Amino acid sequence: GTPFEAVVFGDTRTRHDLHRKVIAAIMEKSQAEVAIHTGDLVSDGFDTAQWPLFFDIERPLLKKMVFFPVLGNHERGNYKYYDFFEVQSPYYSFNWGDAHFVILNTDVGNVAMSADARTKFWDEQTRWLEEDLARSQKAAYRIVVMHHPPFTATASRQGGGGNVFARGLIPLFEKYKVQLVFNGHDHNYQHHLFMGVHYVVTGGGGAPLYPVTGAMEGITRKVVSTEHFVRLKVSPQAASVEALALDGSVLDSFEVKP
Asked: How, if at all, do strands 99-103 and 92-96 pair?
């Protein structure tokens, strides 16, 4: 029953000056105790030189908040991701206050070399997801975070890859009453609403921005191509979502009920 605040952001892999500004804005505009990164922390997870720069930029946030990462395609499944963040599995879940968070790995292409092994991984993760959601039905809020978005208003990204896998999970989100799904991968802000589930793309952490030219009629609620982060405030009464630009202006806001 204790209210809490979290921040959600992602795609910090390049344009490090913008990445620093995003972190500075989070520190100034948020009182969060939890930070969730939607993936693509660095440009190449195998490049040892990139990780110290990431940690240097994120240092103020990491000193203040608990940090939960999501695998993006640019981590490339490298072992450093697991070592640095003490992550034991490419997918996991945790509870914070009244919310149950599920972290998924949609970067199936870097899971294994063979198609059979990749299919096996996805089937195992999907079974685990359904079992995890079934166990969490008493949570007031169920929130999923994964890198690839099932819905996107970036026209060039509307097919293929992890997006197809992500779309296959939509029936499970509806069946188990997930309220929020956060994604990265597309470098902009997007808010879609489909069958009662809010899908939020937050990929404005510093990577080069993508245009938002493929809004989907009846589903897309808001699209903005700018650097930003999302502030999530959870209480027993409601979970409020605010997308904030670097100057603190509100790009989008909405609420979901427990």
From this structure: antiparallel
- The sign one gets for the Cα dihedral 66, 131, 178, 170 is positive
pLDDT single digits (tens) 3-37:
999 999 999 999 999 999 999 999 999 999 999 99
Tell me the pTM: 0.96
229's CB contacts (< 8 A; 6+ apart) are 7, 8, 9, 22, 25, 26, 30, 202, 204, 205, 243, 244
Residue 253: beta bridge partners?
242
Q: Say how far apart CA 144 and CA 98 lie, in whole Å.
A: 14
Residue 182, pLDDT score: 98
Strand order in 180-183's β-sheet? 92-96, 99-103, 141-145, 180-183, 197-202, 189-194, 220-224
Helix (H) or strand (E) holding 95: strand 92-96
Q: How many CB atoms lie within 10 A of CB 171?
A: 10
CB 251 within 8 A of CB 188: no
**Is the distance from CB of 11 to CB of 72 less than 8 angstroms?**
yes
For 213: left if phi > 0, alpha if psi spans -120 to 50, otherwise beta; the answer is alpha
Cα–Cα distance, 26 to 213 (Å, whole number): 27
Give tens-digit pLDDT for 129-188. 999 999 999 999 999 999 999 999 988 777 766 688 999 999 999 999 999 999 999 999
DSSP per position, 177-235: T--EEEE-SSSSEEEEEETTEEEEEE--SSSPP-----PPTTTEEEEE-S-EEEEEEE-
Task: Please report which helix (H) or strand (E) contains residue 79, including its range.
Answer: helix 79-85
Mean pLDDT value of segment 100-110 = 96
Question: pLDDT tens across 204-214, in order?
Answer: 999 999 999 88
